[in-house]
Every structure is written in structure tokens, then in C-alpha cells.
Amino acid sequence: MILDSKVPGGPLAEKWDRHRFACKLINPANKRKFDIIVVGAGLAGASASASLAELGYNVKTFCLQDSPRRGHSIAAQGGINAAKNYQNDGDSIFRLFYDTIKGGDFRAREANVYRLAQVSNNIIDQCVAQGVPFAREYGGQLANRSFGGAQVSRTFYARGQTGQQLLLGAYSALMRQVKKGKVEMLSRREMLDVVVIDGQARGIVTRNMLSGAIETHAAHAVVLATGGYGNVYFLSTNAMGSNVTAAWRAYKRGACFANPCFVQIHPTCIPVHGTYQSKLTLMSESLRNDGRVLVPKNPGDRRPPAEIPENERDYYLENKYPSFGNLVPRDVASRNAKEQCDQGKGVGSTGLAVYLDFSEAINRDGSGVITQKYGNLFHMYEKITAANPMHEPMMIFPAVHYTMGGLWVDYNLMSTIPGLFVLGEANFSDHGANRLGASALMQGLADGYFVIPYTIGNYLATISSSPQDASHQAFKQVADEAAAKIGKLLDIKGKKTVDEIHRELGLLMWDSCGMARNEAGLQQALAKIPAIREEFWQNVAIPGSGLELNQSLERAGRVADFLEFAELMVIDALSRKESCGCHFREESQTEENEAKRDDENYAHVSVWEYNGDNNSPEFHKEPLTFENVQPSQRSYK
Amino acid sequence: MSDIHLTLKIWRQEGPDAPGRLQTYASGPISTDMSFLEMLDVLNERLTGEGEEPVAFDHDCREGICGMCGAVVNGHPHGPEKETTLCQLHMRHFKDGDTLVIEPFRARAFRIEKDLVVDRSGLDKMITAGGFVSVNTGGAPDANAIPIPQKNAEEAMDAAACIGCGACVAACPNASAMLFVAAKVSHLSLLPQGHPERARRALDMVREMDELGFGNCSNERECEAACPKGISIRNIARLNREFLKAAILSDED
Q: Cβ A128–B193 below 8 Å, yes or no?
């Protein structure tokens, strides 16, 4: 297979304009002849659905939840980046591009990242026009805050609920199209497979989560906006329903998977406190604007934070990285927290936590200002931990948060299956080996509002507009396979619950393919995963039937896919023997224990092609060339 | 951290047309650091092990923002803690030996799908009726072109914080969705972007609410007390003004 990224020629700043001009158009009267399926209704899915319907396409949108207003984009707290330079602090499209590609440790495509920076400004304009209530200054102008990995203030926010407000904006645009009859919204549907006919994506198979009915849906193109796979670790900051199933089934139908081992571990989450724990809660990175990360200087110091005198506190990020201080990128902050805890300086009952202290900011700005900025985050923290960060430092620890890896897509966001497009966190394209804060919302909306509306037309113009229906036998065959798999799961009638097995997989992945990875650990994981998978297929207990609302069955289907997918992650982590961004191979570090890239051998995207259940996946490389930035050892000192 | 033991009386109903009943379970040891949903997880793990069907309940983000979870606990939608979703309610607020009656959000417009899962699609339908600004993608003016006073932006945000969980409907003796509709109408009428359609929006959303079978507002204030996001009933006053102005003064019908 030859991977053609289809990056247009010409200078970086002109590529997108040139490409938009080169894209074939479909005239308005013909657009209504094309049907498009969008799977997922988070930021990417909702914005794509609305924008495509506005253009005149017939859109069918699917989501797992009872309403399209609940995609996990809603939980993003901190903000969304844009190169508006409203602060006059030296920001520009090129700087946002540069920060993003550097933050990603030079493992993303230049052209994609530049386009992202270019459309970032349109996103803010669009959202304001929809009525998104961004934070404002007294004069009525939009407010900005700073985020990790950048030295300019370019992050727009709506309190600590930016993701919610942006999603509700996209959702309102989507519902407006539902009213117009241009979008058919199908909630409580889980995509079980994609249907490929003559090498082109032609539809999907879904399960109606209320009735259990297996349904088929045909279209001229399929757009996946199904989010990330962080729940492979069991514990993550993802929503409980977030899963890899749609992406994984697409992979098994011929869509290549890129960089699956690139997983972001977010530094500021509430630490784990018990075995019953179902998920981890993130505390926005924006807290690092005013909070100071610290541990006691002496290992084993168990005094309460208030009793640790100033000269016995180690503000390790400020000491080690004087120019970025507490605002180093997420991967650097996470690794340093782990390092402190490994040295015995961790705090809290488990020793797996560090402090984030706001006392200096409260003394400087007053409690009113801090409450206005972070009140809802402090409130949430207090609900979970019963401690108030206004009076004592927060305790934080890194947790799985975002997956930079995803289905491989070209510049048009099309996967290796023609007609199958992938947007948002589900694709791999823009964040390289580490995503900067406030960039996920930007990418989801860039893909949905401003990229796919152009590039999908370029594909549709090459295919026939004759009506699609699900009568082709391929639909029946794929639906039968999906039903058979459900039947097989229900027939196991074993002893272990889905969560027990999922937790076991998660722990293994966290230990061996988490914040630090090494050859021996990864090899061990590779040996253990098939055994857990075997146990699952022999011994999982799923009560109830397939023809009803059955949440155990839903989870079982997702965990079955995680159990296959985990192996690909480990294979990918093994094959990348360099460290880069979030991917820290202990064998490859600088003398100062920073991630050491190997540009000579690994300046590529690792792309995996499914090759049958019993064979190793086929490995392909998409080389990364840098014409506009010089890859350097990242330094935040 | 300590463990407590509770008696759980949980509404079990196999499907929309099946009869439902309260079933009693002993919780077993429950850590006070658990969230309410984690307590249900623990019960469900045990039921699954015993070959019984676990209790179906909606949930997703477990961070109090997606609005998917919700049940009535001892008569309180989302439980007894103020401004707290069920997923953010922690077991330290209960005492050893307590009995908890756990029921679905009940309303004429919310059909029970199974156990604690209800159909809240009526909320989406009211947004579809008019809870948006009619602007297509592309061509929006610069975001700073229209200054918006900070106070208005903040007030709009107060209303926009609604998570669409339906607790207000479940709490209302009339099963009215006034607070939900009011939050959206307020959010958009406080911002200049929402002005061109404000009359149309108020009329359409209220009409849709009536048609879906939600009840009327009789100023019980139960919605405000139950709202996990602290949405104020001042928004209902604003909705009433918007509706009246639209009905009397505008030429919309």
C-alpha cells in the first residue's frame, strides 16, 4: 500500500487556499442527491453534520447517548486556542502552528497543523456568531488566558466549561438542521461495523441500544467522529462510553491505524483513591496559570502541606524549567510528577500525588479573583475529595486523557478506505506525539466546520450520485456478522464481569504502556494480552438478552475490541524505539531525563494495516518532512 | 475513609410497557469516598456475579457536565446535595444504616425505558423548535466586532450552563420544562447574536413544550432547588417577559 498524504504543493501558507481552489465542487442542486453518514455527535461530529447539512447534503447523524448534546467534548474545561493576537503579545498563525508542531515533538504533518492554525480564527468568529458566551473583559472584548506550551495568551474560554459551550453551539446548529429536515438524528445507536462495497465505504451497521435491533444504513460517504480510545486503560478522564469500537471495526475493514501508542497522560487529575473507582477526573490545565506544583523536598515527608516550611518545598517545575515553569507541556509535567513520586516525594495516602498550591495567587490577587477564574473547578474538586483548594493545596496526579493516535487520514481527512472520513480525536493528524492544551476543541471544530465541508465534495464529485440503499448483500452479510458476535458474547455465560476483565487489561496497559515504556515491559504485555482476551471469551458474564437495553452487553462489545486494540498499541510502542512527546521509551532519554527523539530513524508516522486476526499487522511509514520548521530537541527551560 | 451499609430500594422495570416495582437490596460495604454511581456499580457487579440483571441507569462523563445521569433519591432529583449531579454526589453524605429509595425521573413527557433510564428526547425537541441562532458556517464577522458587556456575557453564561439533565422536570409537581426552556431563551436573548430571533424563539419553544405534554409553571420553585447547575428561576421571569412581549407586540404568530 502506498500512503499518499495528498498534501498540496506550494508554500506552506498557500497550501490550503490552493487546495480549496483545486477541490472539485458539487453544484447546489446536486448536493441534495448525496447522503452522508456522520457517526458521533461531539464537537467534530456535530459541527460536521450541521455544516454539511447547511450545504445541502442529506445527513444522518448517530450517537451513543440519549441526546447529541452529551458527547465527551462537553467535558473539556480550559479553552480553545486561536491565533487572534487580540492581546498584542506577538501571536500569529505561524506561531500557533510552530507551538503546536513543537508541542507535538515534531511528529505531525506540517501542512495539517498549519491549516489548523489558519482556521482557528474562523472558529472563534463562528462560535461567537452562534451565541457561545465566551468570557469577556469589562470593555466587552473577548478575554484570553495562557495555556501550557505557549508563551502567548491565545486561549478563549467560557469559565471552566468551554467544551460544554462550544458543543452546545455546535449542537444548536445541528438541531437547526434537524428542524429543516436536512439531518436525521439517531440517538442511542452504536456503530458496530462499516460496510465497504467495491473498495468504497457505503454505510454502517448499528445496534439500536433500546430495542437491540441490528440496523443497516447506506450512504455515499461515511464520516467517523467517534473520539479517542483512552478507555483501553479502564481508568481515564474519558466518559464511560468512550470506546475504540467504530475505529477498530473500520481498521479491520481496511482503514489503517496511525501511531496508536501516542496517548496523552494529563498532569492535573484527581488522584486514584480506591479499587472501585470508575473513572478519573481532570482538573483543567488552566489551573497551572496560578497554581504552583510542588512536593516536599525530603522523601517520606508526610506532614500536612501547611506545615511544610517554604524552604522545604520543592517547586520542581519552576526550578527545572525557569522559562516555562508550571506551564510546561503536559507530557513534561506528567513525567516530572511521576519522577517525584518515584523518588518517594509523592504526597497523599497513596504517595501517588503532588500538590498544586494556589496560596500565592490568592494572596496576590485576592480570593475573589481566583474564585471567578476557577470557582467551578474548586467546587468540583471539593465535591469529589471533600477538601477546599482555597484553604489547602490540591492533590493531583497524571491520568490518561487524550489519544493523539487514531485512524490514518490524508490531507482531505479521508482514511485508506475511499469514502470513509475521520475527524477529531478519532484521527491522528494534527497533534503529533503530544497535544497542547486547548487544541483538541480547536481541531474538532476545524475538522467539522472548515475542512470536511470542502474535502468531502472533492470525493463525492468522483462517484455516482445514484441513490444508495442497504439492499446490497454486503449489508446483510456485515449485519449478520455483527449479530453473530453479539450472540457469541451472550452464549459465554461465564463468571467474571466485563469490568473485572477490563480493569485487568487497563492495569497492564498503565504499567507497561503508560507514562514510561521499555522493551521488557512491552514484550511482557504483548504476551499477557492474548491471555486476558482468551479469558474474556471463555469466562465473561453478560446477563440479559440482546433484544433489549443491555448495558453489560454494550460494555462487553467495547471491551472485546479494546482487548484486540491493546495489542496493536503495544506493537506500535515496541516499534518506536525513540522517545518523543508522550511516548517515553526509557532506553531513549537525554542526560537530563528528557525524551530523546531520533529523527534519523523515526521521523515518520507509524501506520498499521490489518492483515487478518492471526497475522501481525503490516507496517507502513509515512515519512515526515519539515520544510518550514527545524526539528529541535524541545526545551522548556 | 470508612465503610457504610445501606438499604437500597431501587425501581426495577423491564421495559416501557412492563409494570415496575421497588426492589430492596442490601448495599454491602460502601466506601464513603465512592460516588453515588460507583455505589451502583458495586451493586451491579454483585448482581452480575449472582446472574441477576444489573440495574440499568444512564451515565457517561461522570464529571457532572454531560447531563446524562440522574435519578430521584429519597424524593430529590440527583439526591439531597445542593447543585450536585448524581455522579458528583458522594457517599460521605449518607449515614450508616440509611435507606435510599432510588427512582427514575418521572414526568408525563419522560417515558421509562428500563429501570432508571428514561426518554428525555423532548428536551432536544424543544431546542429543535428554536433554541439556536440561525447562522450558517462561514462568513461570521470578527469575534470582537460586537462588544458584549461583561455582565451580559456572564448572565448569559449563567443560563447557558444548563446541562439538559431533566431534573427540573422531575422536580416540578406539574412536570413543567419551564426552567429548561427559560435557560435557553435567556442565554440567547441576553446576547446580541440572539436578538433577531428572540420573539420567534420564545413562541416556538413554549409552543413545543406544551405540545410535548410538559406541564405549566405554577411558581413552585422546585426546579431551581433541584437544578444541579444552580440555574435561577429569574430566567423563568425573563422567559415570561420574552413570551409576553412576543405574543403581544411582535408580528410573529
A: yes
Q: Is residue B116 part of a domain?
A: no
Can you give the residue ranges of every domain in chain A? 32-265+402-460, 266-401
Q: Does A273 sit within 8 Å of B153, measured CB to CB?
A: no
- Quick check: is A288 catalytic? no
Residue B77 within any structural domain of the chain: yes
Looking only at the bridges linking them, the beta strands covering A354-357 and A394-403 are antiparallel
Residues whose CB falls within 8 Å of the CB of residue A106, separated by 6 or more in sequence, listed in order: A432, A580, A597, A599, A603, A624, A626, A629, A631
Q: Which of A139, A161, A549 sits opposite B113 (nearest CB)?
A: A549
Nearest chain A CA: its distance from B155 CA (Å): 9
| Cα A100 from Cα A436, distance rounded (Å) | 7
Instruction: Tell me the C-alpha distance between B155 and B187, whole Å.
Output: 8
Given the residues A107, A145, A154, A330, the one annotated as active site:
A330
Whole-angstrom distance, CA of residue A168 vs CA of residue A69:
6
The whole domain housing B12 covers 3-111
Is the complex ipTM higher than 0.90? yes
CA-based nearest distance B221→chain A, Å: 23
CA distance B227 to chain A (A): 15
CATH 3.90.780.10 is right for the domain spanning A32-265+402-460: no
Q: Is B149 within 8 Å of chain A by CB?
A: yes
Report CB contact under 8 Å: B140, A129.
yes
Beta-carbon contacts below 8 Å between A and B:
218
CB contact B210 to A (< 8 Å):
no
* Greater pLDDT, B219 or A376: B219
Please name every residue paired with A145 in a beta bridge, in sequence order, or none if there are none.
Answer: A155
pLDDT at position B2 is 82
Question: From the CA of B201, how many Å to the nearest CA of chain A?
Answer: 12
Which residues of chain A fall short of a pLDDT of 50?
none
Put simply, the answer to whether A543 touches B48 (Cβ < 8 Å) is: yes
How many structural domains comprise chain B? 2
| For residue B1, pLDDT beyond 60 | no
Phi-psi region of A459 (alpha: psi -120 to 50; beta: other; left: phi over 0): alpha
Comparing alpha-carbon positions, the chain A residue that sits nearest to B130 is A176
Question: Which residue type is seen at A573?
Answer: A
What is the CATH classification number for the domain harbouring B38? 3.10.20.30
Query: Do A445 and A44 meet the contact criterion of CB atoms below 8 Å apart?
Result: yes
Distances (CA, A) of A11 to A15, A16, A20, A625, B84: 6, 10, 14, 14, 52
pLDDT digits (tens, 9 = 90+) for A391-425: 999 999 999 999 999 999 999 999 999 999 999 99
pLDDT in tens, B88-112: 999 999 999 999 999 999 999 999 9
Fold held by A266-401? Flavocytochrome C3; Chain A, domain 1 (3.90.700)
Q: State whether residue B66 sits within 8 Å of chain A by CB.
A: yes
Residue A428 CB contacts under 8 Å (≥ 6 apart), including other chains? A258, A259, A262, A404, A405, A406, A407, A408, A409, A605
Report the pLDDT value the prediction gives residue A537, as an integer from 0 to 100. Answer: 98
B198 falls within a domain: yes
Residue B192 in contact with partner chain A when CB distance is under 8 A = no
Query: Are residues B13 and B101 located together in one domain of the fold?
Result: yes
Between chains, do B61 and A72 touch, taking CB under 8 Å as contact?
A: yes
> Is there a single domain that holds both residue B173 and residue B197?
yes
**B185 and B158 in one domain?**
yes
Q: What integer best gives the mean pLDDT of chain B?
A: 97
Residue after which a domain boundary falls, among B84, B111, B138 = B111
Q: How far is CA B102 from CA A555, B40, B116, in A?
A: 23, 10, 8
Q: Do A125 and B37 touch (CB under 8 A)?
A: no
